[in-house]
Amino acid sequence: MIVQRVVLNSRPGKNGNPVAENFRMEEVNLPDNITEGQVQVRTLYLSVDPYMRCRMNEDTGTDYLTPWQLSQVVDGGGVGIIEESKHRNLAKGDFVTSFYWPWQTKVILDGNILEKVDPQLVDGHLSYFLGAIGMPGLTSLLGIQEKGHITAGSNQTMVVSGAAGACGSLAGQIGHLLGCSRVVGICGTNEKCLLLTSELGFDAAINYKKENVAEKLRESCPAGVDIYFDNVGGDITDAVISQMNQNSHIILCGQISQYNKDVPYPPPLPPAVEAIRKERSITRERFMVFNYKDRFEPGILQLSQWFKEGKLKIKETVINGLENMGAAFQSLMTGGNIGKQIVCISEEFTL
């Protein structure tokens, strides 16, 4: 059987911006037979995420991410349906997900790398398993629970950067759900700002491209900042830290402004900002969601419950077609998405 796949065509270079042309689509022959323990799956949805920028370099700069190889199939978060199974725990028609799903229309996989998912948890929106009811949701929830130190009823203020993205749009809502009295988001367009305040329950939003971030933070966080959910790093982070309170906490989720630069992760703060951080005893520890695997199952159930109760609003930007994976990634890295960026590969399935 002939299937389509996407391979890494070229690397952007350590300090380069990724472009759609870094990827290319090709056809490949899928074996007719699967062996014991394997399954053949049809890909329904694929995820593009900022961390993937690190996988485009020969050296990812982290010990837990392997680089993508030139002319080899690219992989990431995916969800699909089993068409044929020789794995004892998986049957034809099961919906499954993996963090290492090849960018391919159909694929033969070792059943052990797949996790079965229950469509009821997402009311049939299977792509949510790649977003709010998946890794970004867990990253937001566990990051806040582990590193945010929220005490309900103690009038804490949370600031979220990259607030209209996959993690940010959830983090602000979760901050409120766990007891923050004020949540302020920073993002890059007026449309995103409006979405945060009118739909996602943020108390205020700042457009960093149009407004003076330090000035607007002072206005919207009169009592200072207690928790900072950081998705971006760079100048925005420096502005937030300068307004953080004594013994406050930074949740280091990502540093998208730094991913196209050859710097270590997490990038060091400028000396003056680092001095403020030390003086005010602000914690800034790396948060690695994979260190909390024992919390994934209860976390997913909690996120699903909030979604079903209408307490967690889920936003997605969906592009259709495997041929658009590169374009979707380029768009994501320049802020073209609201909520989770998803690519729909095939929609033919019945629940």
From TrEMBL:
<dbReference type="InterPro" id="IPR013149">
    <property type="entry name" value="ADH-like_C"/>
</dbReference>
<protein>
    <recommendedName>
        <fullName>Prostaglandin reductase 2</fullName>
        <ecNumber>1.3.1.48</ecNumber>
    </recommendedName>
</protein>
<dbReference type="InterPro" id="IPR036291">
    <property type="entry name" value="NAD(P)-bd_dom_sf"/>
</dbReference>
<dbReference type="InterPro" id="IPR041694">
    <property type="entry name" value="ADH_N_2"/>
</dbReference>
<keyword id="KW-0521">NADP</keyword>
<keyword id="KW-0443">Lipid metabolism</keyword>
<dbReference type="Pfam" id="PF00107">
    <property type="entry name" value="ADH_zinc_N"/>
</dbReference>
<dbReference type="InterPro" id="IPR037399">
    <property type="entry name" value="PTGR2"/>
</dbReference>
<dbReference type="GO" id="GO:0006693">
    <property type="term" value="P:prostaglandin metabolic process"/>
</dbReference>
<comment type="subunit">
    <text>Monomer.</text>
</comment>
<keyword id="KW-0560">Oxidoreductase</keyword>
<keyword id="KW-0963">Cytoplasm</keyword>
<comment type="similarity">
    <text>Belongs to the NADP-dependent oxidoreductase L4BD family.</text>
</comment>
<dbReference type="InterPro" id="IPR045010">
    <property type="entry name" value="MDR_fam"/>
</dbReference>
<comment type="function">
    <text>Functions as 15-oxo-prostaglandin 13-reductase and acts on 15-keto-PGE1, 15-keto-PGE2, 15-keto-PGE1-alpha and 15-keto-PGE2-alpha with highest activity towards 15-keto-PGE2. Overexpression represses transcriptional activity of PPARG and inhibits adipocyte differentiation.</text>
</comment>
<feature type="domain" description="Oxidoreductase N-terminal">
    <location>
        <begin position="5"/>
        <end position="117"/>
    </location>
</feature>
<feature type="domain" description="Alcohol dehydrogenase-like C-terminal">
    <location>
        <begin position="168"/>
        <end position="283"/>
    </location>
</feature>
<dbReference type="Pfam" id="PF16884">
    <property type="entry name" value="ADH_N_2"/>
</dbReference>
<dbReference type="InterPro" id="IPR011032">
    <property type="entry name" value="GroES-like_sf"/>
</dbReference>
<dbReference type="GO" id="GO:0005737">
    <property type="term" value="C:cytoplasm"/>
</dbReference>
<dbReference type="GO" id="GO:0047522">
    <property type="term" value="F:15-oxoprostaglandin 13-reductase [NAD(P)+] activity"/>
</dbReference>
